[in-house]
Every structure is written in structure tokens, then in C-alpha cells.
Amino acid sequence: MRGQRGYTLIEVIVAFAVLGIALMLLLGTLSNGTRQVRWAADSGRAALHARSLLDGVGIDVPIVAGRSTGEFEDGRYRWSLAITPFVDPELPAAVPDPSGRQLFELALDVHWGEGSPRERLQVHTLRLHEPGALAVLAP
């Protein structure tokens, strides 16, 4: 029986333990990758909704100081839009434009999921309001 070689029970148990730890680390990495892909898809959709909403300001939504809220995709994405007259802190007191044109700041906040900081998109932009100007769409 001296010529027979094999693995002892201890060696087999250690090999299974090492294999189990390696699989656990691999599955954890894959799970994290899946979470990152989902977050990227959600934030991409939020950016598309934000762009769509901001593109309509001045056309579908009048440029008037105030706040409005709403939702996309049956409440999956919630948004809040604040429109305020823009005041440049670098310039002295603003002199009204005789033509009636005024610059507004649009602050859009879109959140989804639990609304944590990672599930939130904030966009700030400026829009010029020209009274009497009509939006003309090409056919």
C-alpha cells in the first residue's frame, strides 16, 4: 500500500474552501458591475428626460418666474423646475433692457429611485426671454 498516493481529507476541505472564497469574490464583482450598469442606464434616461423638458421651455412652457414639478414614466423619475430672473453678481445693479428682454436661470432637478445623491441629476442653464417673439417651427 506504500505505492498508493492520494489527497487527504484536510487537503480536499482546504481546496473547497479556497474555491468557495474565489467564487464569492467573483460573484461580488459581477454583482457590482450589474449595479453600475443599472445606475448608468437610469442616469442616462434621466438626462434624456431633462433635455426633453428643457428643450420645451420657451415653447411649450412659458418662461415665467416660478416653480413647477412633475414626473416621467409613471412616477419613476420626478422633476422640479425653478425659473428665476438671472442676476449677475459681478455686474452693478441691473438696468432694465428697454426692449423688454430678460435673462432667466433655469434650475432643473431630476431624481429617481430613493432619491439619494447618486440618483439625482441637477442642471442649471440660462434662457433669454424676448417678449413678443414667437417660436416658428419649420414644416
Give a short overview.
The protein is α+β, with helices and mostly antiparallel strands and 139 residues long.
Order of helices and strands: HEEEE
Radius of gyration: 29 Å
Spatial sequence of strands, sheet with the most strands: 1-2-3-4
What composes the largest sheet?
Answer: 4 strands, antiparallel
Integer count of domains? 1
Determine the N-to-C terminus distance: 93 Å
Structural class per helix/strand content? alpha+beta
Approximate shape: rod-shaped
User: Total number of β-strand segments?
Assistant: 4
Could you estimate the helical fraction of the residues in percent? 25-40%
Low-confidence stretches: 135-139
Question: Average pLDDT, to the nearest integer?
Answer: 84
The number of helical elements comes to: 1
β content, as a range?
25-35%
Transmembrane segments: 6-28
Organism: Luteimonas chenhongjianii
Protein name: General secretion pathway protein GspI
Pfam families: N_methyl (PF07963)
What does this structure look like?
The protein is of the alpha+beta class and about 140 residues long. It has one domain (about 10-130). It contains 1 helix and 4 strands. It has one helix at about 10-55, and strands at about 65-70, 75-85, 100-110, 120-130. A 4-stranded antiparallel beta sheet has the order 1-2-3-4. The longest helix has about 50 residues, at about 10-55. The termini are far apart.
